[in-house]
Amino acid sequence: MTTRTIHFIRGLCAFAMLAVSAAAAAQAWPSKPVRIIVNFPPGGAADVIARAIAPGLGESLGQAVLIENRPGANGNIGAEAVVRSGGDGYTLLMASGGTVSVNPQIYANMSFDPAKDLQPVAAAARVLVYLIVRPDVPANNVAELVAHLRANPGKLAFGSPGSGSSPHIAMEMFKLNAKVFAVHVPYRGAAPALTDLLGGQLQFLFDPGPGLTHVRSGKLRLLAVGSPKRSPQFPGTPTLAESGMPGFDADTYFGFYAPAAVSQEIVGRLNREINRLLGTPQVRERIEALGGDPSPMTPAQFDQLTRADRERFGVVIRAAGIKAD
Question: 145, 179, 238, 302: least surrounded by Cβ within 10 Å?
């Protein structure tokens, strides 16, 4: 046997051992609690969805699933923490699609590349945005709100979960379509923006779901849905497309991501478990209460949708000149 043959056989053996070791590690996972970092504050859509999924996921994995909120920089702070966590599969990200599709287009310098450093694990929900106003705003429909904004340029303020968030993008789409101007006030999440809307510091906003409770109670007024189709929760409320803005679509997909180095075995198992949970009544009810639509799909399908959103929202970002604050 030649020296070259011996080295070749040794190489094959080493490769086989590594493969067996990797497979064993994947089979042993998880052997400790799994952490889900939500890159927005408590009370927002991402947080509600993560907390709806976590108990069932923990039960199926046989380990505790812990939620940690790390808001800031339109989700970049929490996402970077996940990227830096390594590839052992014990730290996941729950985020809006904007973390991957929007942030690279509005931040001049990012410490990571979401497209390369994160991989999609499972979509959770298609999240709609709802155009909501305070009751003291003299508008019962979109046309009346547009007329009020045109009569009072720069005198009304709207909030968003942050610059470049899906509600912010939706409002910039609205402003471009209606040719109106209003003051944007970015927050570190949907919940604090909603608090200021209720408190009178803001007059209107696009809400990703948490505000619907206050719509039902009469504290806020719902004018339209920023989706291509009406919400099953509010079938009598028109879409923006039906209200004079053809083609208006501000829907985005919220879902789970993992560092790029996490094995496909772990990603595949997580995808299967999350998709199963999305079909359970308790999870569906929590997501639908937000006005969202549970959306099980493969990682590849989720990735394809994110890429399409990057192009779709990029048109608005460039037209409105959106930059991170």
Answer: 179
Contact 105, 87 (CB under 8 A): no
Nearest residue to 275 (alpha-carbon basis) of 35, 68, 91, 60: 60
Residue 178 has pLDDT above 90, yes or no: yes
Answer yes or no: is 266 within a domain: yes
Query: What is the pLDDT, as a whole number, of residue 116?
Result: 94
Q: What is the pLDDT of residue 55?
A: 97
Does 22 map to a domain?
A: no
For residue 236, the model assigns a pLDDT of 95
CATH number, position 36 = 3.40.190.150
Query: Is residue 164's pLDDT more than 90?
Result: no
H-state helical runs in the chain: 3-28, 45-61, 76-83, 98-101, 103-106, 114-117, 142-151, 166-178, 190-199, 212-217, 264-278, 281-289, 299-320
**In a shared domain, residues 197 and 108:** no
Please say whether the beta carbons of 315 and 247 come within 8 A: no
Tens of pLDDT, residue by residue over 76-100, are 999 999 999 999 999 999 999 889 9
Question: Is 152 in the same domain as 220?
Answer: yes
Residue 189: its pLDDT value, please?
84
Can you read off the two tokens belonging to residue 312? 């779709």
How many structural domains comprise the chain? 2
Residues 6 or more apart from 247 whose CB is under 8 A from it? 241
Domain boundary, last residue among 221, 243, 265: 243
Phi, psi of 292 (to 5 degrees): -95, 175
Whole-model pTM: value is 0.83
> Residue 197 domain-assigned?
yes
- Structural domain of residue 222, as residue ranges? 130-243
Which of these, 254, 256, 224, lies nearest to 241 by C-alpha position?
224
Please enumerate in sequence order all residues whose Cβ is within 8 A of that of 4, keeping only pairs 6 or more positions apart, or say none. Answer: none
Question: Measured between alpha carbons, how far is 218 from 44 in angstroms, rounded to an integer?
Answer: 20
Query: Is pLDDT of 188 > 90?
Result: no
- Listed in sequence order, the residues at least 6 apart from 141 whose beta carbon sits closer than 8 Å to its beta carbon are 223, 224, 238, 243
